[in-house]
Design brief:
Keywords: Methyltransferase, S-adenosyl-L-methionine, Transferase. The protein is built from 6 helices and 7 strands; from the N terminus they run H-E-H-E-H-E-E-H-E-H-E-E-H. The protein has about 190 residues and is of the alpha/beta class.
Length: about 190
Amino acid sequence: MIGSDLEFSSTIWEAGLVLCQYFEKEKMDFTGKKVIELGSGTGIVGILAALLGGNITLTDRPRVLPQIQNNMNNNIPASIIHRSKVSVLCWGINHSDFPSDYDYIIGSDIVYSLSSYSFLIETLKSLSNPNTVILISSKMRSTTREFHNRMVTVDFNSEVVCSNTNAEVNLYKLTRKCPATEAQDRN
């Protein structure tokens, strides 16, 4: 840990472990894939994606980046660290600074604050394209269900691909709806 001022960002949450276990169970191979992690925190999920071959961008708020960089330096071999980078991404603010050609968008326990949901959806839409697979592992809170069952389904197809009832974590797979489907769902 870099410092106690990082609050929640210095904790490895159950949702992150569930997403890592899913990568292992599904034998995920990110070789040659462009991956971005939202709200990286400790970077555990993004670091694993790098170790599984991904070209990964780990993102979070500015004060969290030194911790992520330190964890990357300590856990990603020098021979592959060039495929990894750390960047500031504030949802709803600078998402347009990033491309929309990611193969995967990943995030763990990023759906927790009702006030950030519209910014998160705006960011997901900006970073994704019809071929992007989004994997979000979420601790199931009452507001989390609202996000996954009602808000996100306007713009994305959503399905639960893994559920850990002991940890109360669901893993959602999202893909962009085609424009015609989006228009139908809004009517």
